[in-house]
Amino acid sequence: MAGGWTRDGAVQDQIDDTVKDAVLRARALTPSGEGSEECEDCGVLIPKKRREALPGVRTCIACQSERDKNVVHSTINRRGSKDSQLR
Fold first, then answer.
1. Is the separation of the CB atoms in 7 and 29 below 8 Å?
2. C-beta separation of 2 from 8 below 8 A
3. Which of 52, 54, 48 has the alpha carbon at shortest distance from 26?
4. pLDDT band, residue 45 (cuts 50/70/90)
């Protein structure tokens, strides 16, 4: 059931688009290509199990954790914001 200015299914479409965007972003951030035996940030040997689990990995777990802390996520979903559509 739509409410106000929306059509039927608009909320689900917004949810689907948000999930799709998150999946595409995760795929883009997944390492690919030839990996490294040593971390490119600190030079520590990357464990074989990690290299097997993530082909193309170039950082150790500690350095990757630090990189992940610096990732900024938007808290506003502009795709479904009525205000952004009215501007």
1. no
2. yes
3. 54
4. very high
Beta-carbon count within 10 A of 47 CB: 13
Residue whose structure tokens are 């170039």: 58
Tokens in use for 8? 């039927």
Q: What are the strands, taking DSSP E only, across the chain?
A: none
- What pLDDT is attached to residue 26? 84
> Global pTM?
0.56
The token pair at 26 is: 């995760």
Q: Tell me the pLDDT tens digit for each residue of 46-82.
A: 999 999 998 899 999 999 999 888 877 666 655 555 5
